[in-house]
Amino acid sequence: MTYYLVIFAAGFAGSFHCIGMCGGFACALGHDPRGRTATVERHLLYNLGRLTTYCFLGGLAGALGAVWCTSQGMAVPLLNGPLDTAQRVLAIAAGLLMIALALQFFGLLQGLHRATIGYGGSTLAASLRNLQKSQSRAAPVAFGVFNGFLPCPLVYAFAAQAASTAGALPGLLVMLSFGLGTFPAMLMMGGVGRVLAPAWRQRGVWLAGSFILLLGLITLGRGILPFAAHVGHAWAIGPSG
Amino acid sequence: MTERGDHLCSHCSLPIGLRAMQRTVNGEDCAFCCYGCCIAFQVKHGKGEEWEAAWLLIRLGVGAFFSMNIMLISLLLYAGTFSGPDAWLIPWIHLLLWIFATPALIILGEPYLRDTWAHALQGRVTSSALVVLGVGAAYAYSIFATIERSEQVYFDTATMVLLLFTIGSYIEAAARAKTARDLEPLLAAESECATVVDEGIETRRPARDIGAGMLVRVRPGERVPVDGVVVEGSSHTDEAVITGESRQVAKGAGSAVIAGSINLDGPLLIESSGAGSATRWAQICRSVRDALSCRSPIQRIADRVVGVSVPVVLTLGALTVAYWAQSMPFDRALLIGLAVLVVACPCAVGLAAPLATSLGIGRLSRCGCLVRDPSALETLARTRLIAFDKTGTLTSGRSRIVGIESEGAGIDEVLARAAGLERHSEHGLARAITMAATARGLEAVATSDIRAMPGRGIRGIAEGQPVAAGNSALMSDLGWPLAPALGRRARSLEASGHSVIYVGWGGQVHAALALDDTPLPEARSTIEALHSLGLRVALLSGDLAPAAERVANVVGIDDMQAGLPPEAKRAALDQYRQHYEVVAMVGDGLNDGPVLAAADVGIAVGSATDLARETASLVLPKDGLWMLPWVIAVARAVRKTIVTNLMWAFGYNLVALTLAALGMLQPVLAAAIMASSSLLLVVNSLRLSRLPDPAPLGIPERPPSLEPDSVRRGLGVPVMAGSAIERG
Q: Residue B65: which of A52, A63, A126 has the nearest Cβ?
C-alpha cells in the first residue's frame, strides 16, 4: 500500500507541473453556465476521462511488461520472489527512463524534453482546442480522454514505472494512484481557478522530479542489485499485496 | 456546387472515387474520400458553435473512453486477476463489458454502418463492410457468450478494432493534408476572390467575374488574381507558379503582372487586361484539377484489385472460420476469421498511387511545371530515350537574319514580301524575318490566301501573284527555278550550318535568307545532366543536316536526324521506340504538336498556345529547359514511391493475411498494424514533398526578364545591317 501512496504523493507533487499545461485546459473548460453543480460535474467528467486514459496506459504498459517477461521464459511474473533476467532488464530500462525524465524536471536534458513534447502533439492539441468550445455534456469526457494522451514526461515516467511492475493490475494501479494524485490540483484549477504562485509551482515540480528520481533509482536498483530483498523488495510487496 | 466537390477530396485533394462522403461545412458542400478526411477537415476548418467536428471528436473521445475501460477490464481478465476465489465475479464483469460495449459500438460504428448500408443499396461491397461484419460478429457472439455464461467474451476486440480504425484514418488524413498544401495555390484560382475597386468603392468578387479594364487592389501577401498592368504602387512579386523560377521581380507603375504571382511587399493597384477566367493561371488550375481526377494505369489496376478484394476477403474469412471451427471452439475460430477481415482491409492499396502522384504533381506545379496527365509521370520515369526538337527548344528560337543573298530584287523588297507572308506564322524563323523588316522600317506587303506547308514553309498571294517562303523542297514543289549563282551561294550558307529560307514570287526564287539560331546557354548542361541520368538523347530536326549538326555538336548530342518533316519525325520516334520501348519528345509545343502527341510522353517547353489544346502531357514553363532533368528525377521519385508503396501494401496484406488465417494474429493487433500500415504509406509518400528545388545547372544567370520581349528581340536585329546583307 505504501508503494501506491508514494505514487499518489508523486502525482500530487507532479500536478504542480500539470498546472503549467493541462491546468490551462482545465481553466479553459471553465465554468458551466448551468450553475456550480454543473461546473463540478463538468470537471469531474473531464478528470474521469483523463484518469481513464492514464489507467489504460498503465494497464497496457503493465500488460506489455508481463508479455515481455513471460516471453522470456517465465510463466507468471513473481514480483515478491527473486527476479529473473527479463524482469531485471525491464527494471533497468524503466529505471533509466525515469531517471532521465526526472533530470528533465530539474532543467537537464533539454533535447529529450523537446523529443518527448514535440511529436504528434499538434494534431492532438488542435482536437483539444475544438472540444473546449463545445457545450455538450459529453465533451468534457472526450476532452479528458484526449488530454490524457498529450505528450507529457510525467505520464511517460509513471507509464515506465507501470511497465516495470510487469502486470496489468499493478500497472493500472500505479497510473490510477498517479492520476488520483493529480486530481486535487486539477480540480482546483478548474473549479476554483485560483492560480498558485510561480514559486510554489517550481517547488512542486522539483518535488515531483525528486519523487520520480527516487522511484527511478529504486526501480533501477531492483534490476541491478544482486538480491531483491533490499529497498526494492519492500516496494515490490506493494503491487502484489 | 463547385467542380472541386465532384472529383477531389476537400481535405486531401486526392481523387474521391466511389467512396465519397458528402457533408456541409460552413455552408459549403464538401466531399471527402474517407471518414478520416471528414473528421480532419472539420477539425481544421469547422467554425461556429454548431459544427459537426466537435461532435465527431466527442464521439471519438467518448468512444475511446468506453473502449479503454473495456480494454482495461479485459486486460485484468486475461491476466487472471479474477481467478480463484473471485471467479464468481466473471459473469457480472461480462455483463459490465456488454453495458460499456454497446454505446461504444453505436458511437464508433455508426459511420461504418452507414457507409456499408449506402453502398449495399447500390449493390456494392466496400471495405467498411469488412469492418462492420467482423465487429458485428464479435459483438453478437459476445452477447451470446455473456448470456450463456461462457468463459470468453470479445467486447474488447470489437470496440478496439473500431477505435483503432477510426483513429488510424483520422491521423492518416491529418498527415495526408500535407499533399494538399502544395496543390492549394493551384486549385485556388477558381475560388479566389479579388478586391475590385470601382469609383473608390472596394468590393470582393470572385476572380472569374473580373473583366478587362477593371481595377483590382492586391495587398502584400495576396496572389495577383488577374493579368494586368500596375497602375499604382510598387512592390516585388514571385512568379514561380508561372515561370518556375522563385525569385523577386520588381514591379512599379506600368509593369505587367501575371495572375498567380504572389505580391510580396507593397500594395498594388492593377488594371486588368483580360477576363479573370482566361489567365494562364486559371488554365493551369483547370489543367491540374483535371490531371488530379484522372486515374493512371497503375491506379486503375489498384482500384480493380481493391474492388475485387472485398468479396474475396469475405469468402476467405468465412472459409477460415469454417476451417478452424472443425478443430477448435467456435469462438476461437470466429476470432481468427475476424482477424482475417480486419487485416485484409485494402485501404493502403487504394492509397498507394494517388497519394504519390498528387504529391508529385503538386511538387512540379509549384515550380511551374504542369502535368496534364498523371500517367505521364509514370511513363516519364520509365523513359529511356529523349528526343529533342531543335528550333525553339534547344535553341533560343529567336533566330536572326545574318545574311541575304538576292537575285534580281532589292533587300527591302525581299524582306517586305517575306515579312508579308511570315507575319502569319508563329515559327521562330518567321519572327526573325518580320522583326528584321520592322527594324528596317519596311512595311510588310499585304498578303492573302495564306497556306502554311508543315515542314516546308508558307505561301500566299500578294499583289496578284503567288509568293512563297520556305526551304528548297517547297521551291521545287512549286517548280520555281533557282538562279545557279544564287543556288551556289545558298548551298554554301547551308553547308556552314545556317538555316536558309528561300523567298520567291512570280514563279521564280528571288532570294535566300540566311538565319542563325543560337543554342540556349543551358542546353549543353541540360543534355549532360540527362546523360548522367542514364538517358539516350536524340535530336530530330526539320532543318537541314548542317544546321542541326552544328547545334547537336554544341549541345553534345551524338544521335541526330535532320531534314525531317513532321510525319518523318513520328516515324523516327516509332523506330526509337522499338529499341528503347518508352520515348519522350521535347518540343516547343508550337509546330510539333502531332509529334509530341505521338511520343509516349510529349514535353512542351514554354508553350504559348492555349493549354486546353495542348497535345503535350507535360508542359515546362517558358525558358524552362533547364528544369527537365529535375522533372525526370521527380518523376522517377514518384514512380519509386508508388512501387514501394504498392509493394508494402500488397506485401503487408499478404503476410498479415497469411498470419491471420493461420490464427497467429490477434484481431486488435491486426487493426493496429492495419492503421499503422496506411500511416507508413503516407510518411513514405510525404518524402516526395521534401525533394530539393530544381537547381540551375551552372549556367550563367539569365538577364532579368523585366523588359518586354519586343525590346529584347529588337537588340539582335542591327547585326543584319553588316556587310553580309549588302552583298545582294
A: A52
Q: Distance (Å, rounded) from C-alpha B195 to C-alpha B210?
A: 10
SS3 for B590? Answer: coil
Tell me which chain B residues have a C-beta less than 8 angstroms from the C-beta of A168. 72, 75-76, 78-79, 81
Determine whether the interchain pair B78/A130 forms a contact, defined as Cβ–Cβ distance below 8 Å.
no
Residue-wise pLDDT for B301-331, tens only, equals 777 877 788 888 888 888 998 998 888 888 8
Average pLDDT over residues B375-398: 83
- CB B43 to CB A56 under 8 A? no
| Beta-carbon contacts of residue B351 (< 8 Å; ≥ 6 apart) | B14, B645, B649, B678, B681, B682
Residue owning grid cell 529560307: B501
Q: Which member of A63, A66, A123 has the closest CB to residue B171?
A: A123
Q: Which three cell numbers stand for residue B75?
A: 486486460
Q: Return the H-helix or E-strand segment holding B269.
A: strand B268-272
Q: Is B592 a catalytic residue?
A: no
**Span B554-567, average pLDDT:** 84
Highest mean pLDDT among A50-59, A164-173, B450-459: A50-59
Counted residue by residue, chain B has a size of 728
Instruction: Average the pLDDT over each of A221-230, B224-233, B289-298 and give the range with the smallest value.
Output: A221-230
Q: What angle do CA B347, B350, B354 make, to 5 degrees?
A: 130
Q: What is the mean pLDDT of residues A171-189?
A: 82
CA distance B450 to B578: 39
State the average pLDDT over residues B440-456.
Answer: 83
Chain A closest-CA separation from residue B60 CA (Å): 7
Structure letter (DSSP) for residue B8:
B
ipTM for the whole complex: 0.79
Helix (H, G, I), strand (E, B) or coil at B474: helix
Its pTM stands at 0.70
Dihedral angle of Cα A158, A161, A163, A165, to the nearest 10 degrees: -140
| Amino acid residing at A43 | H
Catalytic residue from among B182, B389, B592, B600: B389
- Sign, CA dihedral B227-B231-B233-B236, equals positive
CB burial readout B460-474, b (16+ within 10 A) else e: bbbeeeebbbbbbbb
Cβ pair A167:B79 closer than 8 A: yes
Say which residue the cell 526501480 belongs to. A219
Q: Tell if the CB–CB gap between B79 and A168 is shorter than 8 Å.
A: yes
Evaluate the CA torsion angle A183, A188, A191, A195 in order and state its sign. Answer: negative
Q: Which helix (H) or strand (E) holds B253?
A: none
